[in-house]
Write a structure and sequence with these properties.
By secondary structure, the chain is an all-alpha fold. The protein contains 45 helices and 9 strands. Helix 17 packs across helix 24. Residues 1181-1241 are annotated as: Disordered. Residues 1203-1216 have a biased composition (Low complexity). Residues 1007-1174 form the WASH complex subunit 7 C-terminal domain.
Amino acid sequence: MAKRTNEKGWEVSGFDEGSHTIAIEKEQKAYLTFISDYSAQLYAMKEALSIGNLSIAGPDTTDSSMYNSPIDWNLTPHEHTNFIQLAKTENVVLTKVIVVLSVLCYEVKQLKRELYETLLPPLLLYEEEGPVHEDISDKTVKIDPTHRPEPAQGEAQVKLGRMLSIIHKLSSFVTRVNDTVKHILWQFCSLYPQSNTNRLSDTPVISINNVHLSSMWEALGDCLAMLYTLDLALSPPQGLEGASAKFREHWDQYKRLLISIQKAAPGQFPDTDHTKLKPFERLMQKWEGQLLEGEILRTCLRQDFDSPQVHVSQNYMVAEELQTSVSSLLSQIEPKIGKLGEVNHRQRLPSLYCLVALFSFVFRSKELDKKLLKQLWDTHKKLPVINILGQIVWVPDEFLKRFIADLDKVIDKKMYSAGATIRQQYLQNTPQAFSQEVADFRQKFTQWNIRISNIPNVSNVGFKNLSGFLSSHTNLILQGTLQAFNLSNTIKMLVGLHTHMKKPITKSAALNLCKAAELLQALRAQYKRRWSRLTPLLSIIYQRLQYMALSTLSTVKKRMSSDRRYTPKDLDVLASLEIMMNMFQGPSTEARRIIAKIAFHIASQVGTRIMRDDETQQLAGVVKKAEAIAEIRTWLDQATDTTFLYWYRDTLLPLYLNDLLTHPAQAPRLQYMLYALKDCLKLLANGKHLEQGALEKATEQQTYWHIRNKLLDPICNQVETDLRLSIHTHLKLDDRNPFKQRDDLIDLTHFIRLPAIEIFTRTVDMKAHLRHYLDQTFYNLNTVALHDWKTYGDMRQLARQKYGIEMTEPHLPSQTLEQGLDVLVIMRNIQVFVRDYYYNLNNQIFIQQQSDNKHLDTINIRHVSNSIRTHGIGIMNTTVNFTFQFLRKKFYIFSQFLGDEYIKGKLIKEIRFYREQKYELDQKYPHERAEKVSRSIRKLGMSEDGITYLDKFRIVITQIGNAMGYIRMIRSGGLHCTSNAIRFIPDLEDIFSFQELGQESNLPQETLDSCKQLDAVVSDLATNFAEGTDYFKLLVDVFVDEVRSQKNRHMHHFYIIIPALTLCFVDHLINAKEKMNKKNKNGAAFTDDGFAMGIAYILKLFDQYSAFDSLHWFQSVREKQGKDYDKLKENRRLSRADSKLDQTMEFTQRRIETFHKEFKLLDFSLSSARVFFRADKTAAEEAEDQKQKSGKEEQNKSEGRQSDPPTDDPSSAPPSRNAYSSDLTADQIARIPAPPPDIPI
């Protein structure tokens, strides 16, 4: 083979055939696939990190990246430096003071975080339950998860057992807070010693006569406020118990469990260490007294703060400083409430109230400033309640009444009891003002959003304009958070008022709450989208604030350094300035900010010549802004927190979804509402009384249940209705009222075009959900009515054009497959079938009596034939077996009725009457006697379902006849099935043998065996087609000996009640046929031949054809008709002059004709039914024929000839090859037990 050299100088084969090109193309294709996939990943990351913009109209677009971003920005600084290293100066005493005070403040902040993030949530969530189902699917979505079954036994003890660790932590927490309060007071006594004593402990550590440590006093108030918050959570006011009531109930049950275990017999609880039960019980008693009595704060205030070294209660300087600090803090906080600059000011107010309570308990000998007390009291007019967390509400006036002695002497009596009135008025005025505030916030948010979206890059700003740029944009960045705080505070106020006063929230207020929650989430989204641009800007802003603070501090320090006459106070101030400068020269950690505040309090003491007022104010402003920039992420989370929705989700969410459904253009708001609900996850993660993740799962299920039932399902139903009405517009007339709002004008495409929404961990695509619903609905309905395939095809096409939904093609046939009910189903429910279906004797068809659908089911021979072809011929015998069992039960009821003493006596009387008067009556049973019998039986009353006992007896006979009609249809269906199979045999009279032909052709043995099997099959088919089993005779023979016995003589009176039964039946059928033309067709029918079949079958059983014929009943009825016509003619002749009676006469004539027409049809049906049971022969004649046939068979057998198979012998039926086969013979069936004749009806 020739070789060639490629471009690289390699020797390669000259035979190529394109393989080299194919390999290159394959590698290029793989590389392009890699590039495409990698580009898609980069694009997805870009989209996740993209900076989107909200429309100026509000949050009308959603961006899931704000929660699913792969990168998050954490702006919290950290450093590994302790307080001693941070506050280290040459002034050792001052350093120690600042370190101690800073550590105490930091400790309080840590306690506060522990309480609100770890300890309180499990208590508030204790009444919440776990998920009802493992998951919500199409089968379980209709079950409301908000309604729960009764808890299982022992569940309460298990829940409380999971909470014991939290109770232990709470006990330790309360002890720790009490110790912290005591230590803070001792430090104050060390800083503000009592001046009228000469003890060493009363000597001041440093001179701080003009220093007001407001941060320390606020920290002390925070400790006390935390204790009172625990009081409200564990022992709330009456009527607001909530979770605490259930917790207390389970606590008592758990204690009873401990007692019962201790008193149990030895060995009953082998896994329990009984030596630990008693100490544990004492520990629970300790916890109960410490936490559950509602006296946590009072216990702390009553503790002995005095010690041998420190006398707190006698230190009036501390008392004066306490009142001064409270007054100063109140003057700073109260004006800010409700204004733009308010951040967490109202959450700081409880600390001031607790400080006043501390003064009242500790300094009992010193009177509280009445002016300060009135100022605190008046605050509740502006702030009636303070929502702490969840459903914990702090009411200022109630707190003062509870902890301040002799308050009624300071406060006016009228104002003293006006708290409830103030809250009521505030609640009435808030909803309207809140609606306006939401609208104003929306407008301000839109303006702020536009401005913050246009912030340029810092690198593009010139150095000369940098200062003004940073100053203006600092306010702009903080403005959004401050606006969010204002709206959030109003929301919590409104929710707190409704919670405390137990007033239902109005619909408008509820919808405004939802809008406010959406706006808060939209504002948070804007910050999150812009963190990548704001983070470097915030860093530069904080550096600028550091520069401003350091410049001011340097100026003050230089001025002090120029004066060499230092006093000890000046040295302390100078050291404080140095500490502040050190703090501003590092990252803005929480420890640095606390130390800077304490140092600032000492450096800015009143009455000194060190810092001027303008410098103090400037430095205070810089410190506040620096803290705001450092805490902006925390402030943003607090301002946009929407966990309050969790406790009101079952009220707010349905209202919100109903309103959203009526305003489809606002559909994009939905995702923001779901983000607001998702805010609860961080709270639910702290639930301890259930298994981990149970609360999150339960909340997700409840939210999805509301969205499914209030939004998804209505949208699906409306879209389906719209498609149907659009397709059938030619059948609908336009509404002539132009002012009536049309529901079909609502544009639901806004919902369908939404991207997939996130419901916690579940993702729901509305378009996919709607497509699945329409596919399922159209398929199911189309299978019921296959002739509507074109209509549903048009609806699918319209859904694609109008809603952009690409539906699945069902590929259903366009015609009906006639299968009907299966014989197996009817056989297993024979009692239901004969009750719910009418039988038509002539057409051999069963018709359903009534149905919830627009059509009635029918059963005919073809249906039975199809089932027999499916299951095999052997099912026919099994069906007869089931029918026999059914007839046994019905004959027992039949015997009960005829065995009743009243019925039996009445029938015997009628038989005696007819026998005695037979010749006088011309051997015709009188019509009047039949009516009399019918009336006498009706006098017995009615059954529970409002039917007379004669009608009940007629129904029993009809059901027996329906069963016999079903047996007839089974036999006809079998013959139909056999005829379809036998049609391939050319001549039934001359069937050749395949086995003989095979032998003549010398075929192999395996082929001969197959030919033999084929001959057997063909022989069976021919036999079944030619003869078949007479099931009627079989069902007669199996009962005949028993029912004709002497112990069942009461049943032999049956023939005499037939006239009364026919009257009852004819009345029933006339009423049923009249209902055919009425709107309510319940009970309508046009045929019911089961009654005639039942009469014929029962007469055959009792051998009473002759007895019934002797009554000549139908001839008597015809004579009655003649008499009725003669009477009608006579009445017409007499009333010819009166035209008013013509209509009555016409109605009477139609009634007579209808009555006697039905009797004729009944006579014909009964005559036809008797043919099936060979009514032309009596029992004696049939016995004689059977005897002659048996003698002929014996003679043929003795002569060596085989007789023809008898057509009436059940054993002549072909052997069944089906698992359902069970041959039925009279000898194999047990006899029917005779019921006692005196059983009442």
